[in-house]
Amino acid sequence: METVKVILNPYAGRGRGGRIAGDIETAFRRAGVPFEIEESGGPGEAVAIARRARSDGYAIVAAAGGDGTVHEVVNGLAEATPENKAIEGLAILPSGSGNDFSDIIGVSRDFDEAVQAIRVGNTRTVDLGLVEAFDGRDTLRRYFDNNVGLGFEAQVSVESRKIKRLRGFVIYLWATLRAMRAYDQPFFEVNWTDGEGTRHVAAKPMLMVSVGNTGRTGGAFYITPDAVVDDGLLDIAFAGALSQFGILNLLPRTMTRTGLHGQKSVTFGRLRSATIEVRQPVPVHTDGEILSLGIEKLTVEVLPGRLQVIV
User: Fold this and answer.
1) 12-19 and 21-31 are packed helices; what angle lies between their axes, rounded to 10 degrees?
2) What is the pLDDT of residue 163?
3) Can you tell which superkingdom this protein's organism belongs to (predicted)?
């Protein structure tokens, strides 16, 4: 078997990534799978490492970290893959705070099992999303595998980066409470085209807009609960402007798969593409990673079956 390139984020899971390097090495040795570990040193570095690894001929590149690490590795592999070809050879060794994407597609959190999956080589073909966002000066282009969020949801990601002592989804719960004090609810215009080609428009003050390739974000929150990762579509959910009491009432409902269903303040849809404009610049995240603190316009589209993941 060819050598697997492992990109380890030592900061994943609030520092857990740096403590499990030995466990990962042990799992590869037990499975008899040759490997090479390289640590990423900061934001964006895993993108460059993954791009270089694919260019150097590594057929399998494993992201050892959380959703942010997977996001960067996916983008690095995408940059090294022609746009008309599937992105192949992605493996995941989950060690983050949320692990949303890997959980949804069926990657084991047990390193021995995850490495055995690499040895066997079974893959799952899933969709990928592509975002182009304008911040007033530049257009930022990113792929995403899990979800993209504008407004309040992204502000939660911003606040979560400031929390150092908590772990797991509790980080995002506390960050949500902090975000309530730090975010205005501006006027959005959302235009999207569904799977049948029908165009839809919504224009009003909104708390947030979320586009999901999977149903879960932040380790426990189901904002696009009906999203299916391989149906050739993305799901969209947006909530109208709410009072703090309304936000607090909505929050626990996001923690179950059916909690948001029937809520008058929340609108759901499915899309092939969408354009989102906002009168007041808002923060945006892709797979939990802050893309920008001030986006004015964003387009998103689905790339059906673009990504192949070892499961």
Assistant:
1) 60
2) 81
3) Bacteria
Average pLDDT, the chain: 93
Task: Render pLDDT for 218-244 as a digit per residue (tens, 0 to 9).
Answer: 888 999 999 999 999 999 999 999 998
Phi-psi region of 305 (alpha: psi -120 to 50; beta: other; left: phi over 0): left
CA torsion 274→145→296→173, rounded to 10°? 120
Dist. CA 131–CA 148, nearest whole Å: 8
3-state secondary structure of 12: helix
Q: Which residues contact 31 (CB under 8 A, 6 or more apart)?
A: 112, 115, 116, 118, 119
- The letter for the amino acid at 61 is V
Please name each of the domains of the chain with its CATH number: 4-121 (3.40.50.10330), 128-305 (2.60.200.40)
Residue type, 235: D
CB 172 within 8 A of CB 153: no
Q: H or E stretch including 127?
A: strand 123-134
For residue 29, which amino acid is it? R
Torsion of CA 137, 142, 147, 153, to 10 degrees: -20
**What is the pLDDT confidence band of residue 290, given thresholds at 50, 70 and 90?**
very high
Residue 249 and residue 227: Cα distance in Å, rounded? 23
pLDDT digits (tens, 9 = 90+) for 50-92: 999 999 999 999 999 999 999 999 999 999 999 989 999 999 9
The two structure tokens encoding residue 220: 């426990």
What distance in Å separates the CA atoms of residue 70 and residue 62, rounded to the nearest whole number?
A: 9
Token code pair at residue 199: 């165009």
Confidence of residue 199 (pLDDT cuts 50, 70, 90): very high
Closest CA to 105 of 60, 156, 67: 67
